[in-house]
Amino acid sequence: MDKIKFGTSGWRAIIADDFTFSNVKVCVQAIAEHLKSKRLLAKPVVIGADPRFLAEEFMKTAAEVLAANAIESIICPVGTPTPVISYEILSKKLAGGINFTASHNPPYYQGIKFSPSWGGPALPGDTQFIENEANRLIQSRSSVDSINFLEAVNKKLVKTHDPRKDYLKKLKSMLMVNQIKKSKLKVGLDMLYGSGIGYLDSFLKDVLPPVFTLNNYRDVLFGGSSPEPSEENLGELKKELKAKKCHLGLSVDGDADRFGIIDTDGSFISPNEFLALVLNHLIKTRKWKGVVARSVMTSHMVDSIASKNGITVKETPVGFKYIGEIMTQEEFIVGGEESGGLTIKGHVPEKDGILAALLALEIMAVEKKPLKKVLAELSKQYGTYITKRINLRVSLDTFESLKTKLSLHPPTSLGEFHVKRIVETDGYKFILKENSWVGVRFSGTEPVLRIYIETDDPKKVEKLEKFSRQVFVESLGKKKK
Question: Which of 113, 160, 249, 408 is the most exposed place for a label (fewest CB within 10 A)?
Fold first, then answer.
């Protein structure tokens, strides 16, 4: 292995290729060194994992390394959601959390996500420290000390704890539970074999029992697919929803920090649409004021709602850590990303797919109509915003050439659309006329371009996609594979 590299949500790699026990030890030792630098050795670290292959063994390995550094571990059951790890850090005032998850990646991936003492995803300064220390250990071939797991337990350096009850109690305090109960809505769930099992379904069992629950058992292969609650992956939920005449279908990803929503008519509610729904709902029902945080490639419909309600919007780079950071610093209403992350005031500074799914149910219970109808009303009031995201796999030459081209000679127009200004918060965002924009980001792990489009008309979406492909790929003489 060349080196360990943290992306927007931790270090991820293929199991038994780069993600090995020896590399896990190195990474955990680097985290221990980081905690030493912050003088946090006296506080415990919570360890959790999604249901992936060898999760239990990886958690034990992490505890053994921490024990050798005299750091106490609190181990949660396999399948503890990412937002619950965050809640545990804050509620117990811990030094941080180590979470073995590759989120929505394919089942042959595993990952380590470190959350510092403030409960959100680690910021670049923290991950850079951990990366540097881990890679120093790899390059120097230094051995990593560890203490046998049973010995660590006997020395009281390892404890176990199930945070489920406390977390579900917290959720009930944040939601309009009586409204949900009275609604008598028919709800279906798809747990995608992930960490939402025992959380989303358990919450609803006491409040509004689901009509059906799909894939609610551990499968380290996630049914042979990626545990991502995308429209493509929720076909089974959509089918059952229609067959059983339910009002709403809900799902969360492998570590339960992202959400998927199917409306009454079987249509998929995108994260962009849902963030707008949530902001509008919180303004109406909670009367909150303050700041809304969204990532740079997220829909501007949020901006329109915020503007007309005297609310400030903060635009961040991609990565929920930046939204979480704003949440800890300012009066906060809601934060979200187009990729399916969301949190609200009074909750953890981390994505929470369980909370998001339950908010969808609350909105429908309060509005007494399908989410699409609520969206249609919002469009009349705040304008139409149509979004599309395109992932283009290209040759490495094209990938690198486009990076150079955009840094030196960014386009001044996309076909007939003049570029008014360029935002370089994260990638390139070309602001066009009439509330239209196109964004381009480069994957950090493979030669994939991510193109984001937003405008007010389906025909404009088609045009902008055509022009974007021409400008960003075909003009370089390298066709998409």
Answer: 408
From the number of C-beta atoms within 10 Å of its C-beta (0-12, 13-18, 19+), residue 476 rates as: middle
386-476 in CATH: which number?
3.30.310.50
Tell me the CA distances in angstroms from 481 to 328, 389, 395, 473, 476, one per residue in order. Answer: 43, 18, 8, 11, 14
Question: Under a CB-based contact definition with an 8 Å cutoff, are residues 193 and 51 in contact?
Answer: yes
Do β-strands 386-393 and 332-336 pair in parallel, antiparallel, or remain unpaired?
unpaired
Kindly report, as residue ranges, where domains of CATH 3.40.120.10 are found in the chain: 11-162, 166-382
- Burial of residue 302 (CB within 10 Å: 0-12, 13-18, 19+) is buried
CATH dotted code for 166-382: 3.40.120.10
Neighbours of 300 (CB within 10 A): 23
Q: At what angle do helices 271-286 and 353-367 cross, to 10 degrees?
A: 60
Contact 165, 199 (CB under 8 A): no
Can you give the pLDDT at residue 3?
A: 85
Complete DSSP assignment for 304-358:
HHHHTTT-EEEEE-SSHHHHHHHHHHS-EEEEE-TTS-EEETTS-SS--HHHHHH
pLDDT value of residue 185: 98
Q: Whose structure tokens read 């486009």?
A: 402
How is residue 194 written in tokens? 């992930």
User: Cβ of 67: how many Cβ atoms within 10 Å?
Assistant: 24
Q: Tokens standing for 400?
A: 């690198």
Q: What is the DSSP string of 110-162?
A: EEEEEEETTSSPPPHHHHHHHHHHHHHHHHHT-------HHHHHHTT-EEE--
Give the right CATH number for 11-162 from 1.10.10.10, 3.40.50.1110, 3.40.120.10, 3.40.190.10: 3.40.120.10
In this prediction, the residues of the chain whose per-residue pLDDT falls under 70 are 1, 445, 475-481
CB-based contact 210:199 (threshold 8 Å): no
Strand order in the sheet with 11-14: 11-14, 109-116, 96-100, 45-49, 73-75, 158-160
Three-state secondary structure string covering 235-288: HHHHHHHHHCCCCEEEEECCCCCCEEEECCCCCEECHHHHHHHHHHHHHHHHCC
Q: How much is the pLDDT for 479?
A: 43
| Tokens standing for residue 389 | 């995201």
pLDDT of residue 476: 66
Cα–Cα distance between 49 and 182 in angstroms, integer?
35
Q: What is the pLDDT of residue 425?
A: 94
| Cα torsion through 116, 122, 127, 128, rounded to 10 | -110
The pTM (predicted TM-score) of the whole model is 0.95
Among positive and negative, which fits the CA dihedral 17, 23, 25, 28?
negative
